[in-house]
Amino acid sequence: MLSVNTNSSALVALQNLNATNMQLSQTQNRINTGLKVSGPKDNAAVYQIAQNLRADLAGMDAVKQSLDRAISTVDIAIAGGQSVSDLLNQMRAKAVAASDTGLDAASRTALQNDFNALRDQISTIVGNATFNGTNMLKNGGTGVSAIVSADGTSTVAVAAQDLSLTGTTITITAGSTFTTATTAAAIVTAIDTSIDNVNAALGKLGTGANALQSQRTFANKLSDTVETGIGNLVDADLAKESATLQSLQVKQQLGVQALSIANQAPQVLLSLFR
Fold first, then answer.
1. How many CB atoms lie within 10 A of CB 237?
2. Which residues neighbour 27 within 8 Å (Cβ) at sequence distance 6 or greater?
3. Domain segments of the chain as ranges
């Protein structure tokens, strides 16, 4: 049946063209964004999963920042502790030299001055071993704690180590002097104890630093894995989308031509009235 009011062929052609245009728009959006699921309308379930994973990924970024701060703080403490250990070794050498019974008073006084200068450097180093407002070596210093889970519920802590002259790790006080060979020998014993204590404290800091670094390495791997998982869910295959785009563009052109042909069909009625 031919009718100027209703052209079923044109309606079908228009429906097909509209469907092609919708598919073309979807493909162009995937190419523009690089995503096959850019919103809940594309795939509600996948989008929800991806958003949850993105939240975890953001949490892992916070974990890495927390670990970086903690690692830097402990590294500063270790550097300070190593310097203190070196100073104690030098102080021991001065005390051993001063314990020589054949040493004259002037030489012993010179050694005492060097000893005092080295001892004072300990206080300077300990006081300056600060990162981001945290000092792990001073008397009453605080340890560090880093979050290691995306929800912030799990942490790793490293305890402070008091290396000040007023603490118990270093047994050499600010008033330690060797006026005789006997007092110098006693100070050597005290320094040996201090060296052992400082090295033990460094061992604890080193263990804590290794734990933090292990967590940092794991956080990187976990973050990369989650990011890859998100990509597997929502990323578009651009090679496939490019091929689909070309196919749809050809299909669109053919649809336009089909609609044009269908719209011309009612004109056949004019020939019946000639």
1. 11
2. 241, 244, 245, 248
3. 8-34+241-271, 44-234
The pair phi, psi for residue 12, each rounded to 5°, is -65, -45
Instruction: To the nearest 10°, report the CA torsion of 81, 84, 89, 94.
Output: -170
Q: Is the dihedral of CA 14, 17, 19, 21 positive or negative?
A: negative
Say which residues have a Cβ less than 8 Å from residue 13's Cβ, sequence separation at least 6: 255, 258, 259, 261, 262
Per-residue pLDDT tens digits for 125-172: 999 999 999 999 999 888 999 999 888 889 999 999 999 998 889 988
pTM of this prediction exceeds 0.85 = no
| Whether 73 contacts 143, CB under 8 Å | no
How far is it, in rounded angstroms, from Cα 127 to Cα 138? 6
Phi, psi of 234 (to 5 degrees): -115, -15
pLDDT in tens, 165-201: 988 899 887 677 888 889 889 999 999 999 999 999 9
Look at domain 44-234 and name its CATH class.
mainly alpha
Contacts 24+ apart (CB under 8 A), 262-266: 262/7, 262/9, 262/10, 262/12, 262/13, 263/7, 263/10, 265/2, 265/7, 265/9, 265/10, 266/2, 266/3, 266/4, 266/7
Lowest pLDDT segment from 81-85, 160-164, 225-229, 240-244: 240-244
Phi and psi (nearest 5°) for 132?
55, 35
Give me the half-sphere count of Cα atoms (radius 13 Å) on the Cβ side of residue 223: 18
Contact 131, 76 (CB under 8 A): yes
Which residues have C-beta within 8 Å of that of residue 134, sequence separation ≥ 6?
73, 141, 142, 144
**Helix, strand or coil for residue 129?**
coil
**Confidence (pLDDT) at 64:** 94
Q: How far, in Å, CA of 74 to CA of 170, rounded?
A: 19
